[in-house]
Structure formats: structure tokens, C-alpha cells
Design goal:
Elements (H helix, E strand, L loop, with lengths): L8 H8 L3 H7 L8 H14 L5 H7 L5 E6 L5 H16 L3 E6 L6 H11 L4 E4 L6 H9 L3 E5 L9 E5 L1 H14 L5 E5 L5 H16 L4 E5 L5 H11 L8 E4 L2 H13 L10 E3 L16 E3 L2 H13 L7 E5 L2 E3 L8
Parallel strand pairs: 1-2, 1-3, 3-4, 4-5, 5-11, 6-7, 6-8, 8-9
Antiparallel strand pairs: 10-12
Length: 333
Amino acid sequence: MTARLYVSAQEVAERAGVSRSAVSRTFTPGASVSPETRRRVMEAADALGYQVNHLARGLMRNESGIVCLIVSEVATPYRSALLSILTQKLQNAGKVAMLVNTDRSDGSVDRALKQAIRYRADASIIMSGLPDKSITQLCLKNGQRLVLINRDDDQPGPLRINLDDHEAASRVVTAFVRAGCRRLAFANSQAGTPSLMAREHGFVHAARRLGLDVVVERYGWTGYEAGQVLAQRLLTHQDRPDAVFCATDLLACGFMDTARRQFSLSIPDQLCVAGFDDIEQAAWTSYDLTTFAQPVEAIATEAVRWLEDRSLHEERRIQLHADLVWRGSIRGG
């Protein structure tokens, strides 16, 4: 026996004893339908297990309601937090989120994105600086509305949401100097994303304005293990730093654990450390990390509002502020 794939609106109409258009009006918000007709349609739909085909309905209006979330490093705490809030807000707006994971570089990303485009995805949100700029071009070429988060693509049309990473980094320099630190270092990955490099450049620039040099080390991808290697490199310098700004909290966690276990350094008495993202682990007693809170709620709100409001067709740039969260990894915090 072949299983039924779906129940049609016509079947609901026949069971309820109403027209096909009455069924359509019943499931259209704001449409006019009598209470009696609504009752009969809803009872018939419930008995038959009928569900509205929103995809087909949307395509009739040249909209599918699908939004692609193009993201790398899905498993990192910051990215998963942003994904969680974005998907919630998209669902509340009646959208369907489709995830495209860009961690691999074997052609699977292009295939996944092209498949999403074949499903008539209305828009895409690119959530990191890692995916190649050709992905941005592909989305725009296929008529998608596009939100770029922490990227520096120069194509016209998208909404761009960035943080003032440069300004945040300068505040870390001020905090280190007030703590009495003079030998500064910056620990970064080799990802080279716009946000990570803005933090590095901002930190170096602010330190040099005060007549301080900065030792910069970069290694690997932006994770805990890279922080461990960076600590080994920086803390074996002859002129060992007394303050280190790590480009992300994950780097900082690996850095701090290695500084304590391998080099027996006390934080913050012998070494001050700051991070960026304010992930859950940053507040753990073992780290108590001074960091910057990513405004994930504001990022998600601005992205979804722009996608919902069809009157906002013009290209926009939004720069958000990251709040400094003082904890115990810097003296005097």
C-alpha cells in the first residue's frame, strides 16, 4: 500500500462541504471568512491531517521564505550562540533557515549553496569572514537579499553589520597600561578574517601611539589548541610579555591554561590576559576572563528586520559596539 504524501486543499473542501477558495481564505491571515465556515474547514483539516504548503504558496508570490545561513566554525561557542538567536528570530518572522556549512574547501560549499538557490531561497546571511567572496557574488547574481556579518566584501547591495573592533582593541591597551603592563603581545590565528585583523591592527596602532611595541604571533585556526601553541611561542621570548590580548576567547582559554601549567605564571599577577566574544567559558572561575561581549542579539535583530522590511532595499552599513566585560584576568579590573 502506497503511503499518502500530502492531503490537498480540495480534499479538505470536499469534506467540509465548502469551496476550495474558502479553504484558502481560512488559512490566509486577515482574509474574510465566516465563523461557521472556519469551524468546518478547521475540523476537516484536523481530521485529514492537512498542512498548508507554504513553499508553493510563497512561490506564487515569487517568495519561498527560505533564508540561507552561510557559516564557518559552527561548533565554536560564539558562532553557535549567534546561530541560535538568528534561527529563533527567523522562525518568529515566519522564515525557514537553511544551514550551509563552509568549513570544508572541496566544492561542497558551492554545491550546497547552488542547491539552496534551486529551492528559491530568498536571502542569505553570511556569518563570518572566512567564506570566499565568490559566495557573495553567487548570492547577489541570483537575486538574493544579502546580509554580511563581519565581512569586508565590496559588492553593492547587501546589509553590512560590523563591530568597531579597532576601537575595542584600543581600550584593551588602555586597560593593560593602567595595570602597569609595558611588554604587550597580540595572539591571533592565521584565519585573517576582517574582524580578527581589525583587532590586531587596532591593538598595535593604539600601543604605538603610547610608545609601546607589540609582539604579534599568529598560528592555525581560531581555537583552543592554537591558543596553547601561541602561548608556547610568546612566553618563551627572551623579553616575555606581561600582557597579551587574544583575538578570541577560545584562543585566550588555551593561552591561559598553557601559561599556568607549562610556565607556572600567575594570572593576573605575572601576566594579564584579555579576550574577545564573551563566550560562556570566559565567566568560568578557572578563566575569569576580561573580554568583549559580542552583541549577538542586536546583530540578529538588525539582520532579520532588514530581511523582513521590503522597504529597506538600499545598501546599508551598521557598526555595533562591543561592551567590555571586566573580570579578574587584568589587574585592577
